[in-house]
Design brief:
heterodimer; A: 120 residues; mainly beta; seven-stranded mixed β-sheet; 51% strand; B: seven-stranded mixed β-sheet; 49% strand
């Protein structure tokens, strides 16, 4: 069974850092692109960042570019999101999502999400 | 960036009725690279449709997707109680991927 389990959420301070991780199982991790998608309180879904299966190409939403870094460890079947220079508006549930193929495809599996709260 | 505008924001219908949800893109979506998701509170989003019109595995055939270019539609032919949720369209043909703002399908 394909499973994604996020961790690392919690309380962060404005200007601070947090690191999210997503443990993947049930599929050949390095064959598939992965993304982070977030949902702020009372808002809709927002794609945050993505990485190809090979890990060679990464993409970011303008709202996080230069502050967040996505990476993957294919030997450990883990997706990461390093979040720096946190802002109050980064407060959201962050979902890890698996694409159907190695690039430019739909999200066929989602994790349960991890809550990030940015507040002083 | 491709902006997706969904309409209506809220749709109030009764079980058994037909629901038609719209998604309009600011520019043509590459190769019909458009998906629809259902999202209920406290749950993960669920894939419904990909490639604009292909149903996800196990999805009841009361759900259907259509459209191309800039105009896409999700239709639920006869609403069941479990269908009331928020629905999002998403394009994955170009980076950044983008979602529509969502349509809240509520019980009338």
């Amino acid at each position: 069974e394909v499973q994604l389990l996020e961790s690392g959420g919690g309380l962060g301070q404005p200007g601070g850092s947090l690191r999210l991780s997503c443990a993947a199982s049930g599929f050949t991790f390095n064959n598939f692109a992965m993304s982070w998608v977030r949902q702020a309180p009372g808002k809709g879904l927002e794609w945050v960042s993505g990485i190809f299966g090979s890990g060679g190409r990464t993409y970011y939403a303008d709202s996080v570019k230069g502050r967040f870094t996505i990476s993957r460890d294919n030997s450990k079947n883990t997706l990461n999101l390093q979040m720096k220079s946190l802002r109050v508006e980064d407060t959201a549930v962050y979902y890890c999502a698996k694409e159907r193929f190695g690039e430019f495809s739909w999200f066929d599996t989602w994790g349960l999400g991890t809550l990030v709260t940015v507040s002083s | 960036e491709i902006v997706l505008a969904q309409s209506p924001d809220t749709l109030s219908l009764s079980p058994g009725e037909r629901a038609t949800l719209s998604c309009r893109a600011s520019q043509s979506v590459t190769s019909r690279h458009l998906a629809w998701y259902q999202h209920k509170p406290g749950q993960s989003p669920r894939l419904l449709i990909y490639g604009a019109s292909t149903r996800a595995t196990g999805l009841p055939d009361r759900f259907s997707g259509s459209g191309s270019g800039t105009d896409f539609t999700l239709t639920i032919s006869r609403l069941e109680p479990e269908d009331f949720a928020v629905y999002y369209c998403q394009q994955y043909g170009a980076s950044p991927y983008t979602f529509g703002q969502g349509t809240n399908l509520e019980i009338k």
